[in-house]
Amino acid sequence: MVDTDRPWQAYYGANIRPVLDQATYRNIPDMIHSVAETYGKAKAFTCVLPNGMNGTLTFKQIDEMSDAMAVYLREIAGLSVGDRVAVQLPNCLGFPIAAFGILKAGCVLVNVNPMYTSEEMAKQFEDAEPHVLITIDMFADKVVEATRGHPIPNVIVTRVAEFFPAMPRGIVGLVQKYWDKVLKPIEVPHIRLPAALNAGREHIKNDRIEAEKYSQEVTLDDIAVLQYTGGTTGVAKGAMLTHGNLIMNMEQAMELLAGDMKKGEEVILTALPLYHIFAFTVNMLSFYWLGARNILIPNPRPLSNLKRAFENYKITWMSGVNTLFNGLNNEIWFRHSPPKHMKFAGAGGMALQAAVAERWREVAGCDVLQGYGLTETSPVLTFEPLGKAREGTIGIPVPSTEVACFDEHGQKLGIGEVGEIAARGPQIMKGYWKKPEETDNVMIDDWFLTGDIGVMDEDGYFRIVDRKKDMVVVSGFNVYPNDVEDVIATHPGVLEVAVIGVPDNSSGEAVKAFIVLSDKTLKQDDIRSFCKDHLTSYKVPKRVVFRDELPKSNVGKILRKDLRAEEMAQIAAE
């Protein structure tokens, strides 16, 4: 239900429907197949490596391969509707095949960061209890340790150049194995992705099985994806996103962009990882629905890895975070030869700095539109309409969505009043996986509490005043202090630790650790080295400070807020 009393000027001025009809499709597999029938042999996904080598699959091929994947999961792996399948892949051609196949099988996709350590993987596997893991060969050596306590019966392994033409595929494999030496022995029993697809095809051929029969068992209310987030507490929680959540959010996002989007003609650059909910919903699902060609970048670092993609393809749209746009602004090759066909770019994941947006317009010749959302909201809640952007805001609510500010008593506030941002709409998650109490903590009736503090103006535009107090956003990735503190606290030379986020020119925010030592001989590099062995790189503290004591409340709780206040005062003094 949408509140008709709120201002709609921004919608009408941008020719946007404030309310959408019900979902166009009965589930995501229905959308995948329908789009494939429409665009057939058109190019759907192209994976581009830094050296320019690439592989491409058409809509028809993606549809056929994901059918084979679905049949393999149901008939050979023995899965049922609702069973979980973990996908731990970078951006590569195997990702849409795996994701679409899982959804066609009626199973639940569990997105896993491929850069996770075995410890981080184990925590997510323990909670999600996947029956199958689809992973990349470069990181498959971590699987044995990650599954020691919770074995995964079926492991499927692919490679970054899978489905490339034979010669470049072979060259990439040789370079990875003998030059880069990134391919280690895979000690866990597994099957290669092409072999799994062939096995699925044999069942389709011999047993006359059609993958469509599985998706007939799936409704809009069924869970499609378990997308993990730590929330404000740092406790890993799987947001249950349904087929209806994702389809509606896909259509909501595209409604705001419809004025300048042409079906079957767009080319989107995907440098953000598809396992991140922003790229998953917007880049992969939404632009697939548009019949766009998706240019996948397995690793955008260094930024020169994007050079061949910009040179060789007529990119019309890209998504990113502030640090990506800022970095490209400062790349000589990008400034000398900016994209000629780009209509605009979309920013999310972290605040877009005004100076970065202005510089981008000068260099790239198009706007960066900012959006806002969370994992729990599939993720898009607000977005700046084309031609109606307002500096310093996160835009207006997407269609069929109410966004409001609430006070500490759960009462809705009016225009210009500052409070906690809350939202309700068809994209709000079903709840947290196996954590009903955590779900209750973030819901007031059907309103989801974001934890961010904001304000709405008279035209319905929202602005973030403050954000979740403890979460740190490093280049668009959420870092939860509890995660980092838990690791540092296991070091035998550490007595106490507190972690906060501090401003950083290159990544928006950086992780800073304040530590009380029991072993006074330890150096900062000792702590950072220890963290690198147990945490994903963006979680490793960029700055480490040793203290004699940490600020505490009268009950002994370490006060991060006092450390933040000290940090801000120091910055102000400088």
Structure description:
With 574 residues, the protein is an alpha/beta fold. Among the domains are: 59-218, Rossmann fold; 472-573, 2-Layer Sandwich (GMP Synthetase, Chain A, domain 3). The strands form five sheets. The protein has a nine-stranded mixed beta sheet. A seven-stranded mixed beta sheet has the order 7-6-5-3-4-8-9, with helices on both faces. Helix 3 (59-76) crosses helix 4 (94-104) and helix 3 crosses helix 8. The radius of gyration is 23 Å and the shape is globular.
> Which regions contain 5 or more consecutive residues with pLDDT less than 50?
1-5
Task: Report the biggest beta sheet as strand number plus sense, adding barrel if it closes.
Answer: 9 strands, mixed
- General form: globular
Nearest-angstrom radius of gyration?
23 Å
- N- to C-terminal distance: 49 Å
How many runs of DSSP E, i.e. beta strands? 26
CATH class membership of the domain at 59-218? Alpha Beta
Average pLDDT number:
90
Number of helices: 19
Task: For the structure shown, list the relevant keywords.
Rossmann fold; 9-stranded mixed beta sheet; 19 helices; 7-stranded mixed beta sheet; 574 residues; disordered N terminus; alpha/beta; 33% helix; GMP Synthetase, Chain A, domain 3; 23% strand
Topology readout:
Elements: H1 9-13, H2 28-39, E1 43-48, E2 54-58, H3 59-76, E3 84-88, H4 94-104, E4 108-111, H5 118-128, E5 132-136, H6 143-146, E6 154-158, H7 166-179, E7 191-192, H8 193-207, H9 212-215, E8 223-229, E9 237-242, H10 243-257, E10 267-270, H11 277-289, E11 293-296, H12 307-312, E12 317-320, H13 322-329, H14 332-336, E13 344-347, H15 354-364, E14 367-373, E15 380-383, E16 396-397, E17 402-406, E18 419-424, H16 436-441, E19 443-444, E20 447-456, E21 462-466, E22 472-474, E23 477-479, H17 481-488, E24 494-504, E25 508-517, H18 524-532, E26 543-546, H19 560-573
